Each structure stands twice: as C-alpha cells, then as structure tokens.
Amino acid sequence: MLYCVCLGHGIILLLFLFSSVVSVYVEAYDNLLSGPVAQYTALSQKIGGDLLNPVIQEVQAFREKNRSSPLFNHLSAVSESVPALGWVAMAPKPGPYVKEMQDAAMFYTNRVLKDYKEKDKMHVEWVNAYVSIWTELQAYVKQHHTTGLSWSQTGPVASASRGAPAPPPPGPPPPPMDLGKSSGGDSGATNHNALFASINKGADITKGLKHVSDNQKTHKNPVLKAQGGPLPSGPKPFAARPTAAASPARTLPPVLELDGKKWKVENQEGAHGLVISDTELKQVVYTFKCNNSTLQVKGKINSITLDNCKKLGLVFDDVVGIVEVINCKDVKVQVMGKVPTISINKTDGCHVYLSKDSLSCEIVSAKSSEMNVLVPNKDGEYTEIPVPEQFKTVWDGSKLVTTATEIAG
Predict the structure, then answer these.
(1) Which CATH class is domain 255-404?
(2) Which of 6, 31, 217, 383 is the most buried (most CB within 10 A)?
C-alpha cells in the first residue's frame, strides 16, 4: 500500500471530530472521502511500495529516511502537502492554508508526471487523484468552514440537523448570604454585635492595649534579636523555574560514497576539497545537508541535486539531465561545460555561473529569492544579472499575461 494510511487515517480522524454533529458539512466530507480519497487509496494499493504512518511528523521523518527509494518523489509530494490536514487549527481563513500546502507539493508531483508520463500511466492517475484531494478539500473548507470550524471547539456542540439535544438551562442563582447568621447559630449574631460595639468606642478602643517597653522590643534589644534569628524580610519574588538544558544536536557522520548509481554526499561540514572524478553517464549525485563546503564533479553525469545545503560551492563539467537546488541557502553553482536545465526551489541566495557552452540553459525557479546568474564576457569576466522575484499578472481579455517586474527602490 502506498501513502494511503497517512492520508486516510488523518481524514478519518477529522471525520471522528465531525461525528458529534451530523450536518450538511459532514455529509459533504463523506462525499470527499468516497470520491478523491477512495480513488487515491485504490491507486496507492495498486502501485504498492513504501508504507506511511498516520502521523504528520512521522510522514516527514519517513521521507527523510527513505531518500534512496524509487518512489522518493511520491513520498516528497505527500510529505510536503500532508500538513494541510491541520487546517482545523487555522484561523481565520483555513482554505488558503490548504492551497498553500497543495502548492508545496507541486514541485514533486510535476517530477512524478515527468518521470512516468511515458512509462506508467498509473502514476499519472495517482498524481491526479492525490492533487484532487486537496482541491476538493479546499473547496469544502471554503464552503462550510470559511472563517474557521463551524462547530464549537470549547463549548456545547453547534446546532445541527441531526444531533443530541441542547443541555438544559442553568438553575436560578443561590439566595444572597445573610451576614447576620453563621454556622454557629445565634453565636454569630452575638459576635457581630460585640465587634460593632468595640468599633463604636472610637479612640477609647486602644485603652485595653498593653504598653511594650524598649527592652521588650526585638529590634531594640540585642539579646532578643540574637535569640529570635533574622527578622522576616517580606515575600520574595518568584524564582525562575529551572529549564532543562537543550539537548545537543545529533551530528551524523559525513558520507561520500557511490551507492549503486547514486553518489551520496551527506553531512559534510567545512570540507573544501570534495571531488567526484570516477563518473559515468548513468550516475547521479545527491548532496544533502552539506555546509560551508565545496564539491567538484568531473566528467559527464546524469543529474546533480543539492538539498538542504548552506554555503556550498558546486563546480561540475557536464550534466545531461538537470541540476536541482532545493531548500538551500547561500549556494554557488558553476558550470564548466554544458547543462540543459537548472531548477531552483525554496532557496534563499543562489549564484549560477554559466560557461560559454551553457548559455542556452533553462533556469526554472519557484519560491526562491536572491538569485543571480553570472554570464561570461569576451574578456573572461562575468556580468551578474538578478533573476526576477516579483511578477505582474493582467487579464488581456482572453487569458492571463504574466511579466517580470523590478522591485521599486
């Protein structure tokens, strides 16, 4: 079974929350389950492969542990979008949150479509079924829970067409207390009368007090002061609650090895001489969580991926497929030979140095910032050109037209 346990159980959990109120929006949710979710589950069972757990955090952890899986793009699509199930906690507009999570998976669903479009139509149907779940969920939320959950989250259940009757109204408040009475019977009234009689004495109320001489006062008698110990200093401020020491981050061992057809470069820190030289056309390079390092890939290779890297420099000769930069920060990529496509996704800070032979390269970017392409001049110097991050879209009467704009200022 493929990925269906996660999504299925998550939706079943939400359905359980709805079960206390059987109304029109619950019936609409049933239609969602019997439609796109059922189709997605059936296709997942046919494809088979890796099985996911029902907890969102475990889904994401499972994806990280199975990066070598042949269905890694499927796993990533589910991992990136499954937080949409948390729309119940989003306010005031949970619908756009579902759309945002759906868009987060688009990069990986597009890769699945690209890989299987000519190979296996079932995977294409799987993508369509999976995407339709979030499309239908967004429409459902927009219609029935526009500004948040339609039922009460803390108090009585909201009104419904079929449901439990409302709780009975609260009883009348208790009668006011009679200050003239006490649990001790008539003695309460006697005590009150004695108290008011004492107050009515005015200044004479102090005549019954005993005079205390200086030698009987603790603060003026050193002997009494020594016997009584330190004087109380009043209430002390609350002491800060001790906090547990933060557990140190687990450091994973660095990796640079060939695993089948994949060169794995992982967890490198401050390594400025990483070189992959014995390459073949069918091989790929996958670089994960490498920081403040440099990597050189010699020869002609199929593809290169940088994932979750910071301050990494990549230099390579030729790539016949694609170079992908995902979830990175402050990276530099230099092409010495040729590459047809460079993809930059969810990355802040990326410099791409093109060679004369790679000027026809297509650069595709999404959800990224601070991107610059450096083009070589005749004298060997580079001209730096920023990649647009802001766009303008207008309706020309028949279609939407989008153009890049420069940020003012």
Answers:
(1) mainly beta
(2) 6
